[in-house]
Every structure is written in structure tokens, then in C-alpha cells.
Amino acid sequence: MIEYYLESGEEMRIEEHPILSFKKQNQLHFTFNGRPMIGIEGDTIAAALHDNGIMHYSNSLKSHRPRGFYCAIGNCGSCNMKVNGVENIKTCMTLLAEGMVVESELDEVTIDA
Amino acid sequence: MRERDLIIVGGGPAGLSAAKVALESGCSVTLIERANDLGGQLVKQTHKFFGSKSEYAKTRGIDIATILIHDLEPYQDRLEILTNATVVAMYPDYVLSVYSGHDYIKFKANAIIIATGASEKFLVFENNDIPGIYGAGAIQTLMNQYGIMPGRDVVMVGSGNIGLIVSYQLIQAGVNVKAVLEAADHIGGYLVHASKLVRLGVPILTNTTVKRAHGTTKLEKVDTIQLDNHWKEIEGSEETIECDALCISVGLSPLHQLLSMAGVEMIYINELGGMIPKKDEDYETSMPHVYACGDVTGIEEASSAMVEGKIAGLMAAASLGKPHPEFDSRKEEYFHQLTNLRQGPCGIKIRKGLEQAGEMI
Ligand SMILES: Cc1cc2nc3c(=O)[nH]c(=O)nc-3n(C[C@H](O)[C@H](O)[C@H](O)COP(=O)(O)OP(=O)(O)OC[C@H]3O[C@@H](n4cnc5c(N)ncnc54)[C@H](O)[C@@H]3O)c2cc1C
Ligand code: FES
């Protein structure tokens, strides 16, 4: 049986808000670089990863420095990952689904200086 | 190839407003939006809007989005909406290439309205690429759309309205805002927004910018430095603030790439945020039957984006031989609204930019 990172998965959720209410949706199970994680229905992959404490999303193409997400609306590409085997998916725009296999590409994609 | 009458790219306030007027005029409309939901920047704005009454001032951004989407409901039979669909290319023969569900679909249109909005500007400083450094829009998206805090302790760079509003929203979400940095010698945004923060004990540091960030795989702290009134760094004035997120809010620039790619004549206007399409008084670009509206034609605000959208919808419909039944009175009304919105001291920069672009105000 796989053990899920339940505690970490709830860490960054906003509990109380004066204007917005965030309904508790169904939990979704996925893996990131082989690690089982939990997100919530309606999350983008990037949002769910952030809630699981993941900040390092990709490496810059030339100097291979760690990058997080930056724009969260599909403009910059710094959140690109391999999702269910498909490369260069913008995780900030793609909704999480049950059983997704998410992998960081890190140095697989590169531009040589 | 899918052939369509009118295609609108972008489902923010500008695109939604354009769709409504074009539908009222009798056109068939295809609206293409890359995000999962319509509404553009509005869907993450929990604050009540400023601007004019007819453009929903005093209503929260999220609620304006709902109203604009609801307004399209009576026209379902002539309206096709594609979400999760990104227009990745636009060609001079009116062909658009759309990426959706891992596939590329080609569309051809008789008329096109570009309402793609804007992207955030970045700032140059040492280690500005460490994870934990985000655009203000990203922070809003994470927090207000997905209910997730970007970090525990945030430093905001930029005291324009967006920087001030997002700082306040961070506090509402339970995040600690350690400081707002502003390179100029005065606060950029409205004082109502700034005083709310000051009352909550957030220091707004003018003549101050971020010098460098520290951390490897995630942000740990930032060094700030003071600037003199010529924007020169003052030696020995560095200070360190511990934080796990840095929010960059130093302005937006128009998402002009599709227009540039199709060969539309462009012009660089600093006051309007960067490259914008040249357009005539009917909002038509140098490419016949191609219109542009909203932030992509120059950074303003949602209220003017909505009015510009209505103008583009009105004009595009007329160019397709389907003039709105109240064409003349609508045209007069919309241009009058735009002029009003751009009046006063807050519109100075926009008026200056439009003048340079050779547009009438
Ligand atoms: C924090 C903040 C506070 C603000 N407060 C106010 C306020 O109080 N009052 C006010 O009037 N204004 C305010 N604004 C400004 C206002 O939100 C924007 O000016 C307005 O949203 C611009 O509208 P738009 O339709 O041009 O662009 P957007 O709202 O950015 O919409 C553009 C849409 O196009 C889509 N798109 C882009 N490229 C493509 C593509 N290639 N294919 C498919 N779709 C694409 C995007 O996903 C987006 O949905 C605020 C902005 C921010 C960020
Ligand atoms: S964070 Fe910029 S594209 Fe995803």
C-alpha cells in the first residue's frame, strides 16, 4: 500500500477568508517524481504541488538553475513538466486528475551555451 | 480547417464585452480562452472595483466576471466557447492555430478580435530566478482562485494599485506581509489602498528596491537597498528581510505576440506598457477586419477594457455586414464613456501614451 503525504498536503490551504469560501472538494491522488501526493479537485497541478511544499518546478535551460512557477497563467513556461509521459505541459494551466504521474524535466531539456 | 464568422481571442473583460455586442448585432461568435474559466484577470480580484458606475464600480472583480458571462447566456445558439484552448499562431490569411487537448486545430475567420490582455513585467536583480519569487498575478491566482497561500512571509515589490491590493489580499488570506518596497519617492497607487496597509502595520518603504535574493532551491531572504532621487543606490543602506516569497508587481506589458506574428503594424509606447498595435478610430488594426481591445492595446484597467471590448464588438460586426440596430447611438455612447474614464489626474499617463500612438482621445 502506498502511503500518502496527507499532512503536508494541507499545509498551505487558506482556512478562513473574509470574502472567499473554498469548498472542501474531493481528494485526488497523484505522484510527483514517484512520491505519492494528494491534491484537491479543482487544483491545477502547480497549485497542488505548491500545497505539498514543492517549489522547485524546473531548471533554467542554459545555466540549469532551479526555477519555481512565476506567472501561473501560462505565459512564462517556468512550470513545464512531464505529465503522464507528455513533455512540456504547463502545470499552472492543467487541472489535476486522479492518478496523474507528474515528473519534473530538470535537465532533460537544455540549450547548450 | 474550421471556418467561422467572428473569432474573439481572450475571454477577459474585453473579450467578453466584445462578444456580447457582436452577438447583439447578429453575428455568430467563437470565443477562445486558454484558461479553464472565462473572466481573465477578474476571476482573482476579490476587491471592489474603482472606475465608473456603468462599468460596475463598487462591485467585486469576481462578481463582474459572473455578470459578463451570464450576459452571454441568451445567445447560446450563436456562441461557441472554447476554454483550455490557446491560440498559438495567427497568420496574415486569417488562420489561427489553436492548441487544445494535445492537438492543434486550425480555424479561419472573416473577422478577428484580439483581447489577450497582458503579461507581468520582471525585475532585474541578483538571483531573481530563485523559486519563491512570483509575479503579483501568480500570487493572486494561487491564493484567490485555488485557496493556497504563496508563502508565510511575503515582501512586495511595487506600490502601484496592484501591489497594494495584492498585499491587502495576502493579509486577508492569513499571510504576513513584511514590507512593500517602492523605488520611487512616493507611493504609486491610491492612498485609500495604502492607508489600509499602514493601519495594519505594514511598512511601505519608498526610495527602496530589492538588491538581491538569497537561497538555492527556495527563497530564504532578500536584501533591500535605498535609492536616491536619481535612482542611484545609496552605499551602506542595505538591509536584510527574511521571507519565503517575494512578489514582483512592477507593471504589465501587452500580450501582443499574435498581432506581431500576423504582421499587424505595431508601435512601442512606454506609457502603455510596451508594444501595441496601431489602430484606426474604429479600433481596426492595420490588418482589415482584425480588431484589438483591452490591455493588449495598452495597459489600463478593467473598466476601459470593457468599453473597448464593446467598441471592437460593434465595429467588427459592422465590418461583417451586421451593424448593431443602435449602431450610431452605441458608438457615441461608448466613446463618450472612454473619454470620461481617461479623464483626471489618473489618466495622464494613458492620455500621453495614446497621443504618442496617434490615437484620438
Ligand atoms: C491585482 C489587480 C487589481 C486590479 N484592480 C482593478 C480595479 O480595481 N479596477 C479596474 O478597472 N481594473 C483593475 N485591474 C486591471 C484589470 O484587471 C485589467 O485591466 C483587465 O482585466 C484587462 O482586461 P483584458 O480583457 O484586456 O485582459 P485579461 O483580463 O488579462 O484577459 C485576457 C484573457 O485572454 C486570455 N489569453 C491570452 N492569450 C491567449 C491566447 N493566445 N489564446 C487564448 N486565450 C488567451 C487570457 O487567459 C485571459 O483570460 C486590476 C488588475 C490586477 C492584476
Ligand atoms: S508559471 Fe508561467 S507558464 Fe506556468
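^ FE2/S2 (inorganic) cluster complex. Residues 1-9 of chain A have pLDDT under 50 and may be disordered. Chain A is about 5% helix and 25% strand.
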